């Protein structure tokens, strides 16, 4: 289990304010030196991507565009700022964005369509929970009033997180990477079994890179050796060229003049660190992708609390993990609840129930846990190619957010 030291919250750990301009982001954030001492876990900013299936209670829509138009109108009537994703415009970091979701099969004959709703960026910090709780609650009240909200195995709840200052330090990213690898089996127990095997959230621990190391200590040593953000991102999301995912993307990669026979980094892992590599210099979000679709505000809030508390504690000063000790789901739950209490978050019972209802993993004899996630269907094979060039709305929002920090 992790060991950490909790200091007085009197001193802020949120870092220094941004100054000046940055060539890539039009904003420069002064980066504290890695040796700077921090007295408390950093605050975080987050946005949530909700992949759900919607059907209107009033109209039999024949296309996802018709449904998106009604959804936008209903949100506007409820006072919820929103827009429909458009190739010609950037997504605002201060409003909800509506888009079709390519990894969720739609059923037009039943007037049901896979929809993605991407939230504004919000603050996850002690005493700052009311605004984001209200936003999530208001959204679902409007959804359930006007639409039938359902979920399939392809639906998801993705949570993007980044320290409140807008960037990661190398120390923070290494700490979160270690926690993600160490607690992977425990987090597997908190999601439905089908989210342990999905091609959209494959195992980081048993990807092509870390799967070569039999012990957690070896994984940690290789994380500690990294001197660049891009190195950590690539290793956390390394995909084998001869896996079904690699095979599905081989033609598309060749068209982009990439060698389809070489291994590569891809974002469809439980924790996606690829946005860090894309932005550079520690800028970018880390995205937790394993949570199932959320049909209620309570479900969405639960996953936000889990990821927010997990990130804060992983990046706490004094936090450390003994890699040779076996991780325990019960202890992880106590760890998360401790941070939820520290942050004065309400609804502790949501996290308590999630841990209490954990479903133990049952590895198949002769198989490495997590590797079976790469057994994909013909439909998933096709959708992986469709998603390859898809616009990343959460990343767009992050870039816009940097301009306002």
Would you mind describing this structure in some detail?
With 405 residues, the protein is of the alpha+beta class. The chain has one domain. The protein contains 13 helices and 13 strands. Strands 2, 3, 4, 5, 6, 7, 8, 11 and 12 form a nine-stranded mixed β-sheet that branches. A two-stranded antiparallel sheet has the order 1-13. α2 (130-146) packs antiparallel against α9, α7 (244-255) packs parallel to α12 (378-388) and α9 (297-314) packs across α10. The two termini are 35 Å apart. The model is unreliable at 1-38 (pLDDT under 50).
Strand tally is 13
Q: Structural class per helix/strand content? A: alpha+beta
Radius of gyration: 20 Å
Amino-to-carboxy terminus distance? 35 Å
State the low-pLDDT regions, or none: 1-38
Tally of discrete structural domains: 1
Shape: globular
N-to-C SSE series? Answer: EEHEEEEHEEHHHHEHEEHEHEHHHH
List the helices and strands and how they pair.
Blueprint: E1 2-3, E2 44-56, H1 64-77, E3 82-84, E4 96-100, E5 113-118, E6 122-124, H2 130-146, E7 147-150, E8 156-163, H3 170-182, H4 184-190, H5 216-224, H6 229-236, E9 238-239, H7 244-255, E10 264-265, E11 271-272, H8 274-279, E12 286-291, H9 297-314, E13 320-321, H10 329-342, H11 348-356, H12 378-388, H13 393-402
Parallel strand pairs: 3-4
Antiparallel strand pairs: 1-13, 2-5, 2-6, 2-7, 2-8, 4-5, 8-12, 9-10, 11-12
């Amino acid at each position: 289990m992790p060991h950490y030291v909790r200091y007085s919250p009197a001193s802020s750990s949120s870092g220094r304010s941004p100054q000046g301009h940055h060539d890539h982001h039009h904003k420069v954030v002064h980066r504290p030196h890695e040796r700077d001492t921090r007295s408390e876990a950093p605050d975080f900013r987050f946005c949530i991507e909700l992949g759900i299936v919607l059907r209107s209670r009033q109209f039999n829509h024949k296309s996802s565009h018709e449904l998106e138009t009604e959804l936008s109108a209903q949100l506007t009537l409820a006072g919820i700022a929103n827009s429909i994703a458009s190739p010609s415009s950037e997504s605002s970091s201060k409003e909800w964005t509506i888009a079709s979701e390519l990894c969720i099969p739609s059923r037009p004959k039943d007037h049901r369509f896979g929809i993605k709703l991407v939230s504004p960026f919000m603050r996850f910090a002690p005493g700052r929970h009311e605004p984001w709780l209200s936003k999530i609650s208001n959204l679902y009240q409007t959804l359930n009033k006007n639409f039938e909200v359902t979920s399939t195995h392809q639906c998801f709840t993705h949570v993007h997180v980044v320290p409140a200052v807008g960037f990661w330090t190398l120390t923070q990213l290494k700490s979160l990477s270690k926690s993600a690898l160490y607690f992977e089996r425990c987090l597997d127990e908190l999601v439905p079994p089908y989210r342990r095997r999905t091609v959209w959230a494959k195992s980081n621990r048993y990807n092509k890179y870390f799967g070569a190391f039999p012990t957690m200590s070896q994984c940690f040593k290789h994380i500690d050796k990294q001197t660049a953000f891009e190195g950590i991102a690539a290793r956390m999301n390394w995909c084998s060229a001869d896996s079904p995912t690699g095979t599905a993307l081989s033609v598309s990669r060749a068209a982009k003049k990439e060698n389809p026979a070489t291994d590569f980094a891809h974002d469809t892992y439980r924790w996606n660190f690829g946005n860090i590599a894309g932005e550079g210099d520690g800028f970018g979000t880390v995205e937790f992708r394993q949570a199932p679709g959320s049909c209620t505000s309570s479900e969405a809030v639960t996953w936000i609390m889990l990821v927010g508390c997990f990130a804060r504690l992983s990046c706490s000063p004094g936090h450390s993990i003994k890699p040779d000790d076996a991780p325990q789901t019960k202890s992880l739950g106590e760890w998360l609840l401790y941070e939820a209490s520290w942050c004065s978050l309400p609804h502790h019972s949501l996290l308590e129930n999630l841990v209490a209802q954990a479903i133990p993993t049952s590895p198949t004899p002769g198989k490495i846990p997590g590797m079976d996630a790469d057994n994909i269907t013909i439909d998933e094979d096709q959708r992986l190619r469709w998603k390859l060039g898809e616009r990343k709305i959460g990343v767009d929002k992050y870039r816009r957010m940097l301009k306002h920090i």
